[in-house]
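In this section we turn from sequence analysis to structure. A common task in structural bioinformatics is to predict how a protein folds when a small molecule is present, because the ligand can shape the pocket around it. The inputs are simple: the amino acid sequence and a SMILES string for the ligand, here zinc ion. Study the lines below before reading on.
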Amino acid sequence: MPDRLSDRFDYAANLAQAGRYRQHRAAFWPPTTTYDLIPVELARHAPDLGPEFPAALAQLRAAIEAEWDHAKNQGIAQRRRFAVPNAVATAMRRLAGHLPTETDRRAALLRAEAVEHGYEDRILKELAGLEEEVTLVAGQISTWYGKDLRGLPTAFACRRDEDRQADVARALEFLPEVAPYLSRLHADLTLGDLPAFGASELFFMAGEGDLHPKHVAYFLPEDEGVKYSPFKKTYYFTNTHAALVRGASGPLADEFLALDVAFEPEAERFASIPTLGVLSHEFGHFVQRPATSFKDLNAEDRWASVVLQEVAADVFGILILAEVWAGRLGLASADVIAYYLAECLRYVSRGLGHFPDSDGMYLQLSYLVQVGALEPAGARLAGETSVVVAGLRSLARVLADFLLAGNAGPAAKLYRDHGPANAEVLAPLVAELRARPARSVEYGQPHTTSATSAGESRQ
Ligand SMILES: [Zn+2]
């Protein structure tokens, strides 16, 4: 086990431990961190599906927590499969019976079948064609890359967020404008086949996914260990992300950013931006060149490869949002950039050498400072929208030339020069962040436990 007194910003020491937390059982990770908790009541997002429904959720929670214990104590015998699949599948079938629509019930029964017998293409293909209102998922689902590379028992339930899903639909109307924009950035950039995206409100979380910190989205079936499936969908939790943006990114922006506009996450003009930010990040993962392959970089430095892929998704994504969608959707690019920089601060505040996406956000801030697009004054970063956007375009071209061209050497050098190994550039900011605990959301779920449930023991 790593030293409990270690520093969440000690990049080299943390990186040396990455992926080696298989024995870790505490609710909090990284293990040295004290968290400030942001409460999120999931009950207010739960559909009213009758008096039996909470008891059925409690049954699923108990089955998942037994699986989690088993995985920690005995390991996972068969990848992607539970030790006692029948217990989880039975709880899912019981829940399925209470779901509001035929589509919801069908999707939940297909997922119960996958739990019991494993995924087949037939199941994935039918699931891809179903647009559920309420979604129920259970599996050995990916946790944090720096914590454990295996999936661990997790179950969640969420309900479509109609307002935010409408924002997604409006942005997708302007999808045809994205490819011409990318080719103006760099001649042979294209956008690959995009996965489906569901904006939803989370109302149940159990197992590994209920520990800290929380994920704001799961990418299925890849996060369930099924790679290269043509049927992909992101389940994004608007309520979890909104709590993090308001409770963590907002206060950090107030303290450490001086931009031409203030980041005001409660203001109506920011209502759709976090959802579109996550959507555009997902799309950013599919920006590619004919030569794009991460094989050489994976072989040279797997961590750097994962970090740079997140950086590319962030940079291309936020440029698509700020430069293609914002104007057409009635949003100000200055607000998009304020959101983006506030989120950079939140990710960096989780620590370095633990999370590839946090190291990636550090790289972006460090790059923007080094090219003069952000001006440091002590721990504060000052900038103007148009200059930050120009800095992001510059980084996008560098990523296209190195990372997306499959040039492992220069890509690894980009990571060394601008990533957390170069500690000097953002040292005053990191010193301030170190003095503050990281923040994480805590789910209140009294509606998903019954008095006799094993879930009580983990409250
Ligand atoms: Zn990503």
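The radius of gyration is 21 Å. As an exercise, try to locate the residues that line the zinc ion site and compare them with your own expectations.
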